[in-house]
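User: For a benchmark we're assembling, each entry needs the component sequences followed by a predicted structure for the full assembly. Here are entry 17's components. Please fill in the structure.
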Amino acid sequence: MRGQKYIFLLPGLLVLLAIILFPLLFTIRVSLSAWGVSQPGLNWIGIENYVGVLRDQRFWQAMVRLGFLAVGTVIIEYVLGFSMALLVWRDIRFRRVFRVLFLVPMMTTPVIMAVIWRTIFHESLGPANDLLGRIGIAPVPWLTNETMAMVSVMIVEIWLWTPFMFLLLLSGLLSQPREPFLAAAIDGAGPVRTFFNVTFPLMAPISVSALVIRLIEASKIMETVYVLTSGGPGTATETASYYIYIRGLRDFEIGYASSLSITYLIIMIVALTIIAKVLVRTMIGKQA
Amino acid sequence: MLAVTLNAENLSVSLDGTVHLDHVDFTLARGRLYTVIGRTLAGKSTLLRVIAGLLEPDSGRITLDKRQFSGLPVWRRDVAMVYQQFINYPHLSVLDNVAFPLRRRGTPKHEARRRAGELLMRVGLEGFETRRPSQLSGGQQQRVALARALAKQAGILLLDEPLVNLDYKLREQFREEFRGLFAGQADMIVVYTTTEIGEAMMLGHEILVLHEGRLLQMGRPADVFERPASTTVAEIVNDPPMNLLDGHIADNTLHFSSGMGATLPLHMVALPPGRYRFGIRANDLEMRPDGAIGGEVIVAEVSGSETFLHLDTAIGPLAVKCEGIHPLALRTQVRLALEPERLFAFSPEGGLVAAP
Amino acid sequence: MPGLYRTLKYAAVLLWSAFVVAPLLWALTTSFKTINGVTGGATYIPWLDYKPSLEGWRELFNTSGTGVNIGQPFIDSAIVTLGASAISLVLGTLAAYGLSRFTYRAGFIRNRDIVFFFISQRIMPPIVLAIPFFLMLKFLGLLDSIPGLILVYIALLLPIAVWVMVDFFNNVPREIDEMAMLDGCTPIGAFIRVVLPNSLPGVVVAGLFCIIFGWNDFFFAFTLTFTRTQLLPVAIVALNSTVTPWWSLSASSLISVAPLVVVAFLVEKFLSRGTLAGAIR
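Assistant: Structure for entry 17:
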């Protein structure tokens, strides 16, 4: 018994350690070197890169932008996903058809759908401006105006990922016991009161996990940006990941990009931990 | 025939800082049924899990026929078990559930199924072979579990409060059947845990009294009942628990701490003067208008043809069990007769010194 | 009032449905267009707005130099996704079972820390791993190859498999595996004969999640392959940078998306049956 238990855990653990830990440690080492086009290979320059990172305004702007983008889209996804989950939870015809439909975007490949969205947002040939034009609204510079480019990225992210939020929340709703809702109905509570007094508190733990899971995924946003705007116009939609991609894999400043990566990773871990704690306290703690 | 004896020495188990078994020793012999009585969390399940090998003891050892048993992995032990939850394999039919242990021992499929069918007949489940466990009632599910445990034909059969989740009627029925089922298992050691003293006395050849991880007493049901080794045992093996009253013996008289006295019964005459704790069973107290002890009703529960009363009396709180239905209102004044000949005497530390 | 409420409810559901299907319908109609149907401005209904053609679809399987040919990338994508999902599922299920049943400790590390280690890998941004993965695969000689991609995808999918399965196994009563061991099974035997058959829905759910995230990955496929191996998303996005042939772009997108729409039906089935509730939290 003693030895047998390791047969279960070790293969998976060792594989993951090998695949993840090596790259991570290696990245840390590379971040302390000047590896680049003119200096290919490992040398030792100490924390020089990190000093550069601290002064790198473009990186910090990208981080702030990412924070705004991630938190903004996840909140909207949560509101929309929860609404849709409540609507197709019960008492609606064809609910299973709607459920399948609402899940579809999650199954699609984000980059590919971003390409399709790019054609939709095309200023002169895309349907977005065409349809707006038919109701008398002037063409919108979807991908070329700084604000609108952010909005476009957000629309695509919301289209892609609201289904995941929907899935987590609906599965939570479907696993709730019937009794609290019956009790609320017997007390004569209307839909709004039932939601705030019964549904929302019962769903708080699931809501917290759903929000955290989505924030983790959203903190990596880059593929949609890459396809839709390439970070533009200018750097208006550049996220942290995308900026690191440019410095590392396009300009081949491996050493510097690695120190950006490590900084990014640490900030993400710290920020997500704090957000998770705050969410748990505000959404679940109140009833405890 | 093998002289199967299961010997436990100095078994101790602690889990997360709680003591579950505290230096337990015993020897169990084949062909006998042992009931382990104790309250919830007394360590009963832990004891069975240690015997089964599902839990390694912190110290001590178990031997079977003088051969080391405790180091052996579960799957090589000659042990079968029935849980208080109705545990069966949900994905297998009833027949395949019972055949499962036989198949694991290499019995050919056909033969395993034939024997499983026989066992199902013995536990009264013929006709249910192709059902899934989830399609059966609780009692039927427990019958499947029982048949599967018997199918293994293990030297040791452990039953962990097998009836606790069944309703009263079914429990009665099962108890009757158990006698017949186990009577034929002359080579088997059966260990059966329960919280109900009636069940323990009715089924067990011997009773083990377990309390807070310690084995307080082991012996024939009548011996344990008639001569409980300590106040704790006396409380556990009586339902409701034996009434215990502080007092002392002086000048050949028995004094309760409330000040009331009584003639010293014959079986206590030899006791030296001093402080004692006196015990009296709830059904040895009698309500009589001419009773010497006055009291007031705190709780009255009528159950079937008996009445349980909790009284606040001149000599302290007492539980009384009497024949017939006495619908007494709260705060009713009653009088009790206490027969000193029925009193047990324990030392202040709790050990038995005199029994009626 | 109830009538109004009902109307609003259906209106909201239908509006969201329209938003969800719009890009897919747009891709569908565009896939039948020719250059004339695209450059004249947005058109929607075939025959009425534009003259439909199958050119976009034909291009996809045109293996001559001018064609798009997504056949091979499709097969490569399927091999990588299924291969990595299968390996992740086996390793993840075993690890999750171990973590739900046994206690492991090494120094201050306990089971929950190990579970957290597995799941926390999802935090790792792909870009952080891309450079070392590149060098690692180069060192192993697996750059631009299917085995190399499978290796990398295991890192992405294993955490998902563990995440789904740990909760699932925690909900399977442990008395069942104890019983199996009492009946003569070794721990591995108990796992295979008793626990696994009773956890199939969880395994399927974990498998579906692996397939979704594997099939839809772009970044690693993009940074770790060049000429020999090309996965579907990379092949399709490559069309984006040329003189955008919207028709074949749309057609290939639909082909790429289609297999997983089947998965949507399966996921919904598990969702409505309540199987997901225990599996994802």
